[in-house]
Amino acid sequence: FLFKGMAMYKLYYIFVFAIFLNTQPLFSQDDNLNMSVGTAFNSGNVLGVYNNLRTQNKSNVNFNLEYSKRSLSSQLSLNFDDHDKLSFDNSYVNYEKGIANLSIGKVDRIWSFSEKSSLILSSNSRPLEALSLNLENKFNTNWLPSSANWSVELINGSTKNSYNGKNSMLSGARVVISPSDKLNFEFLQTAQWGDQNDKLYSSNIDALLFSNTNEGINSNINKMAGLGLSYSVPLNKNTYRFYSQAIGEDEAGNLPSCYAWMAGLELTAPEMKFPTTLTIEAVDTRVKKSTHGNCGANTMYNNSSYDYINYDTVLGVPIDTEGTSLELFGQSQVNKNLGINYSTKFLSINDKDYSQHRLSSKRSLGTITTLGIHWEKDGFDLGGSIGYQNMILDKANILNGTIFSLYTSVEF
What we know:
Number of helices: 2
Shape: globular
């Protein structure tokens, strides 16, 4: 098996080729073509992803062309931001056959049971340029419920500016095992290695997935790994769901160590006058000092060789290393077209005054509170929100004050 680091221009040719290859003057019943145009605007920088805008951007205009035919689907997404840069984020080509799904492109991933957060791979940064394989199937055993299933996602891609100013390769795997529709387990791992010009051979796949990378010829590989769970309990027409995730930045004896963690409790109440989903979520990326001194302050997302970033933004949770977050967020559906969303978040950033922290040069405490509205009808989406952030993150250009936002989308 051989896979070279992909230059993005090669992906563009694949996207355009796939769309035109499958487009014909006369469409069959299996053909589907959708186009949409959208805009988004924030009056200031906000931590994380906010109404489809990431921390670095205040505005965006996007055009999407999606085409599918039988087992092949593709999307060409053109995004123009306030820095006068054109990107192809969320463009992909996907082929489905049986239990397998093969994809190439730049697709947002959230590797966790949370709706919005992941310690290891999230939508906080721009999506990876990656090749992925997804397998999903039922267990089909007599001693498990008929709903029991499993899935595996494997990716191999590249991260920008993460290896001495160069691009590095990133390989990862997520395995989800669901003994029932109420209980789910996940096992996750990513590994950064080489740069965009290096090659992945079958001989070193074992090192990326299984072997010890703390010493020897594989000591340059930066691994992160861990596990998570989700458990749902129905009660009085409502559903309570608990989920958690623990990810180790380092390893000891081939197992993860130097853990950060995340946990949440979600309430889904579909029978209320306004159907509501409400979640409280806690995240902690502070790593305790280990007996041998290998773990400690600012361990998470930092490595002697690699930065765990893509386009200068951490691949995990927005608070980055050495931070905590406690957030209460939810959404309520007023009617079939109109919904509201709300969030209050308490944050501690750069808890140990680490001068090289990516968000702030010193410890910063604060809150971010938002209230938004969303209206959708006949392919037209319109939304807006108002928020107040009471914190200063000098390196991310985030300031105290009120933030207004607006976003629209029209599908043709």
